[in-house]
């Protein structure tokens, strides 16, 4: 099955200034500030974890990244590996799902890496989301 060529919504270590940003350097087009509605952001061990919000009230802030056509398949494989996503394997660290994200110019569908249901349930039950929906969260106010 051929994957759809969607942009990616990044909200953590792939963003500019973060440790995995170099993985995308030279292989992308536009980076647009964006928001993923209906999601909550949690602090993982050195990285953030987005969880689809059952109440639909949360939002995660990040960037919508358009990937250049030539390296698209390679970027997709690299990001899947980084996020421990394997199609059809629910035991991975993340799931890759297509979701609508909002930008100042409108809504676009994008690939987003989110916590799988079992991990999401644990986070929702035991952890507090980052209140700003942005990572890194910075000092508490």
UniProtKB/TrEMBL annotation:
Domain Gamma-glutamylcyclotransferase AIG2-like: 8-135
Single GO MF annotation: transferase activity
Protein name: Uncharacterized conserved protein YtfP, gamma-glutamylcyclotransferase (GGCT)/AIG2-like family
Gene3D superfamilies: Gamma-glutamyl cyclotransferase-like
InterPro entries per UniProt: AIG2-like_dom, GGCT-like, GGCT-like_sf
Alphabetical UniProt keywords: Transferase
One matching Pfam family: GGACT
